[in-house]
Amino acid sequence: MSERRTLISGNALGTSAMLFWAAGFPAAEVLLQNWSPLVVIVARLALAMAVMIPLWIWLEGPTKVRNAPWGKAMFVGGFGFGFGTYFLLVAQDLTDPVTVALVASCGPLVGALLEVHARTRRLTWSFCLGIGISILGGIIATNALAPAQLGLGAAFAVAATVLFTWASMATVREFPKLGKIGQTTITMTGALVMNSALLVGSISLGYVPSLATLPFNFELGGMLVIYAVISLCISQAMYIGSIGKLGVAVASVHMNIAPFYVMVIMMVLGAAWNWSQAAGAVIVALGVVLSQYKRASTTRPAPLTE
């Protein structure tokens, strides 16, 4: 019963995380039409941390926050989530949200390889079949894009997927004494520091216009709140919780249903129903079930220091 409850709660967290994450794609499209990718991501992280840090202090106390392993978090968050977030926005700026979601569908494969390398995952036929089916579902959900839509943008998306998957697994394993809010906040602070440094450097070199020249209105502010608070704060905390229960490979399988969630959100905004994305969502759901069939006990995360 305990194992079943863990599976149920882990999958519920993963499903909810991807639903909130998907809400950020339409919001990001609006922001990217007005701001450069670096400005978008720094504004997103700054607003998210303005919410998360006070919440973390309130939940766990200032002493625990002060004594947290900030140095290690700067590395995991800065290089993993920092560069990963920037590469993801560059990929979307060069392509579109569907292309990014297509490449991100390979996240479960990256997660499985990382877990096998860390010896926390034993491969079984059902797990491999489930991962393969989930990737197929992700491809179908994104309408099997033509090669002309790939290229440099897809390369950035691949790099972002690898960095995100590694950083997500490292967050759970490197900071086990912190709660989910603490794990999310400490690594995302590292991402904010990294991207802020990149933004300052880009402005100094003239690659990004001065922040004083950027347009800002009520619509952009609303999109930023959706992109920062809903699609990052809430989503990432749930996703980290899902990884803690299922492992990064299985938790990331839920990413492949994100195109369906994006479609549903776009339908609310006036877009049409897409049967390919609906079919892909069903196939991904089958992959989620198969990947956890008779799950071995070795799938639980283990400390990085062995």
TrEMBL record:
Give the keywords, sorted. Membrane, Transmembrane, Transmembrane helix
Provide the primary localization: membrane
> Is Cytoplasm set as a keyword in this record?
no
Could you give one GO CC term from the UniProt record? membrane
Superkingdom per UniProt: Bacteria
Name its cellular compartments: Membrane
Q: Spell out where the chain crosses the membrane.
A: 12-32, 38-59, 71-91, 97-116, 123-146, 152-172, 184-208, 220-239, 246-269, 275-293
Q: List the InterPro entries.
A: AA-Vitamin_Transporters, EamA_dom, EmrE-like
Q: Which Pfam families match?
A: EamA
Membrane topology term: Multi-pass membrane protein
Q: What is this protein called?
A: EamA family transporter
Write down the species: Phaeobacter gallaeciensis
